[in-house]
């Protein structure tokens, strides 16, 4: 263990410089966020992730944001264990009917002001599961969505671009 | 009110299933198979339904050979297999939910995937509209004065899939865990019915995103079996390469996550770096980090060039350097061993009864690996060891995964050195032999994935059944946690890392 710790001290960090935020996502957000809210939150944002029926692909890539290469916490973004602690929800999946109420209740449990970021093609428009009897169709059909990050699944750089754009929009 | 069910192509009498035959049996024949399962002479591979038929795939332990038996259900019911062989119970509840066929005499007739929220019953059988927005669910009782219940989920604390766990605890000790799943049910069976083979392949690749290569491979093999196709040698090797990269990425990611659930973040951080580098290499070589949709019936859609080969060789050298260090970090940290050794023990008898695949089965002494036992190309060319332990605890499941990492590294190195030249895709006509049936058993990182499908005369998929390995692992998690403390549940759960989306379909 000492070796690992020593290397950690001596070697250069693996963490990469952040990608430029996507203009489109900043524009999508621009109108939703008020100045007073930006002042309250500063650059910090606590995120609660909700899987509303995804295949687990999006979760794997959201997980990757925590690894040494992306180190999402340096941007003030933090994943929390309860919606009660969250400023924003990240929602994935085509919203299965079996998860609809759980998503609604998670949203209701999140204190105001709150935002919803829909991640993945399923969350945007049901993806390959469109027209199933078991799916609602998109996250926006259940809770108000402030930002979509597309992809099947979106890779961590795409996720970072969207999320950094989100934080920047809250600070403009 | 009745609405017309989706049109389903009836099985043609001459529709043979390849590579394993499918035979029709009567009720007595069906029950005879169930008895053999109960006696432990056969292993249950899967049990699935159609509008008026049930099918059962079984594995003869000695040979090992797969057989599929079919029972017609003109009266909408069939003799329960779960009555004598519990591993069939949840599969039977699913058949009842989706196709409306009842298992006669089943000890558990509660709904499983159907939570009463679809607006209809039996989406694959005689559809019936319902007004309910939610069904009540009765959890199994655990009685006694000091017992209390702890409901967890469906929304969990981590970035993971949704499911509900109901713990009955006596102080710190778990007396009973009951799982309630089905929250991620997306209606895959019905989306598959009538889908073109290309679309069905996309769906299969999204049944469980962490096993997208294994599912894509299993689906492609089943289609190829049905149509009598053979993928070119180069494609077979590239498929195995992708499958092993997926296995490596998942094993490293999960070993780190298990340690993280024992509060050992250092291991988690380093394993996550290995996982990330594998995914980046996969993206560089095949154009997608998880290698989704890279395997198609007939071959693969992405070739590996010389640069990609070099990149993978470099990656392999680095992982081979890191693996012993990570093994030492895991094995030499006594505070970590204190959490993993003796925790969440699964008995040898249970894994045998449930024919539990993957590292969960192998950590409890069931030496089964679909790459070897049933076998598929090109794995007979490779020389590799299957990890095995008899301890059955969290620790054993981690060590078996380290063994599998070593085996996968060996296979990847072999493929890079012996990659055949030639085409990567075999052209094919979808309707040549249709209607026809095919099946496949593929070893994903979790265990064996079974796929059976029928291609209709129109060249589209008439019915496709995908059985995730977690069907036979989830029930064992309930057994593993019994007698452990509630605080060790995340550790036990992560050491299984069952899929939610896979069995929820």
From TrEMBL, chain A:
Signal peptide: none
A Gene Ontology molecular function term of the record: NADH dehydrogenase (quinone) (non-electrogenic) activity
Sequence ranges assigned to domain NADH:ubiquinone oxidoreductase-like 20kDa subunit in this UniProt record: 55-164
Keywords, comma-separated and alphabetical: 4Fe-4S, Cell membrane, Iron, Iron-sulfur, Membrane, Metal-binding, Oxidoreductase
EC number in record: 1.6.5.9
Pfam families linked: Oxidored_q6
Cofactor(s) needed for function: [4Fe-4S] cluster
Superkingdom of source: Bacteria
Family: Belongs to the complex I 20 kDa subunit family.
Name this polypeptide is given: NADH-quinone oxidoreductase subunit NuoB
Organism in which the protein naturally occurs: Methylocystis borbori
From TrEMBL, chain B:
Pfam hit, one: Complex1_49kDa
Record-linked SUPFAM superfamilies: HydB/Nqo4-like, Nqo5-like
Domain of life assignment: Bacteria
GO molecular function terms noted in the UniProt entry: NADH dehydrogenase (quinone) (non-electrogenic) activity
Domain NADH-quinone oxidoreductase subunit D: 271-427
Keyword match Transferase: no
Keyword Transferase belongs to the record: no
Matching Gene3D superfamilies: Cytochrome-c3 Hydrogenase, chain B (1.10.645.10)
Listed InterPro entries: ComplexI_49kDa-like, NADH_Q_OxRdtase_suD, NADH_quin_OxRdtase_su_C/D-like, NADH_UbQ_OxRdtase_30kDa_su, NiFe-Hase_large
NADH:ubiquinone oxidoreductase 30kDa subunit domain ranges (all copies): 53-123
UniProt entry keywords in alphabetical sequence: NAD, Oxidoreductase
EC number assigned by the record: 1.6.5.9
Protein name from the UniProt record: NADH-quinone oxidoreductase subunit C
Protein species of origin: Methylocystis borbori
């Amino acid at each position: 263990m000492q070796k690992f710790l020593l290397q950690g001290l001596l070697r250069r960090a693996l963490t990469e410089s952040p990608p430029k935020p996507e203009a489109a996502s900043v524009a999508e957000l621009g109108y939703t966020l008020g100045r007073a809210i930006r002042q309250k939150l500063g650059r910090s944002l606590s995120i609660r992730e909700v899987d509303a029926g995804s295949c687990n692909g999006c979760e794997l890539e959201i997980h990757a944001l925590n690894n040494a290469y992306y180190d999402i916490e340096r941007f003030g973004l933090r994943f929390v264990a309860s919606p009660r602690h969250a400023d924003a929800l990240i929602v994935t999946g085509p919203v299965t009917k079996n998860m609809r109420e759980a998503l609604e209740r998670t949203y209701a449990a999140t204190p105001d002001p709150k935002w919803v970021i829909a991640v993945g093609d399923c969350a945007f428009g049901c993806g390959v599961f469109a027209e199933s009897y078991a799916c609602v169709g998109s996250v926006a059909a259940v809770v108000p969505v402030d930002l979509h990050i597309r992809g099947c699944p979106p890779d961590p750089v795409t996720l970072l671009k969207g999320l950094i754009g989100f934080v920047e929009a809250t600070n403009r | 009110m009745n609405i017309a069910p989706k049109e389903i192509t009836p099985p043609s009498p001459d529709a043979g299933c390849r590579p394993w035959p499918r035979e029709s049996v009567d009720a007595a024949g069906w029950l005879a198979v169930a008895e053999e399962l109960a006696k432990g002479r056969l292993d249950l591979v899967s049990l699935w339904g159609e509008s008026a038929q049930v099918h059962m795939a079984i594995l003869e332990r000695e040979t090992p050979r797969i057989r599929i038996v079919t029972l017609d259900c003109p009266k909408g019911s069939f003799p329960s297999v779960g009555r004598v062989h519990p591993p069939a119970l949840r599969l039977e509840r699913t058949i009842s939910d989706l196709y409306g066929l009842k298992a006669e005499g089943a000890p558990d007739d509660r709904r499983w995937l159907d939570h009463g929220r679809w607006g209809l019953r039996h989406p694959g059988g005689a559809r019936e509209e319902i007004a309910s927005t939610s069904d009540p669910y009765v959890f199994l009782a655990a009685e006694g004065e000091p017992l209390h219940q702890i409901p967890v989920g469906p929304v969990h604390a981590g970035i993971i899939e949704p499911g509900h766990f109901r713990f009955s605890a006596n102080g710190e000790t778990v007396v009973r865990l009951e799982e309630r799943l089905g929250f991620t049910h997306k209606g895959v069976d019905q989306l598959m019915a009538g889908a073109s083979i290309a679309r069905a392949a996309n769906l299969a690749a999204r049944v469980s995103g962490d096993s997208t290569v294994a599912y894509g491979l299993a689906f492609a093999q089943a289609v190829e079996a049905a149509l009598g196709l053979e993928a070119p040698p180069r494609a077979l090797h590239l498929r195995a390469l992708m499958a092993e990269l997926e296995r490596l990425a998942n094993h490293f990611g999960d070993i780190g996550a298990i340690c993280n659930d024992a509060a050992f973040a250092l291991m988690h951080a380093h394993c996550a770096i290995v996982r990330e580098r594998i995914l980046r290499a996969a993206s560089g070589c095949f154009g997608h980090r998880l290698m989704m949709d890279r395997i198609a019936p007939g071959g693969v859609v992405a070739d590996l060039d010389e640069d990609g080969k070099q990149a993978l060789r470099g990656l392999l050298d680095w992982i081979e350097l890191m693996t012993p260090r990570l093994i030492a970090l895991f094995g030499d940290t006594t505070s970590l061993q204190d959490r993993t050794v003796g925790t969440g023990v699964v008995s040898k008898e249970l894994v045998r009864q449930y024919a539990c695949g993957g590292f969960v089965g192998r950590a409890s002494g069931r030496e089964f690996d679909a790459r070897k036992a049933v076998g598929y190309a090109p794995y007979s060319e490779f020389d590799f060891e299957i990890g095995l332990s008899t301890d059955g605890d969290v620790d054993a499941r981690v060590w078996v995964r380290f063994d599998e990492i070593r085996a996968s590294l060996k296979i990847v190195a072999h493929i890079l050195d012996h990659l055949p030249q030639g085409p990567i895709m075999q052209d094919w006509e979808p309707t040549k032999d249709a209607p026809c049936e095919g099946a496949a058993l593929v070893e994903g990182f979790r265990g064996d994935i079974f796929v059976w499908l029928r291609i209709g005369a129109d060249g589209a998929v008439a019915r496709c059944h995908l059985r995730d390995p977690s069907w036979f692992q989830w029930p064992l998690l309930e057994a593993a946690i019994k007698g452990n403390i509630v605080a060790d549940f995340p550790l036990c759960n992560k050491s299984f890392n069952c899929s939610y989306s896979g069995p929820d379909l």
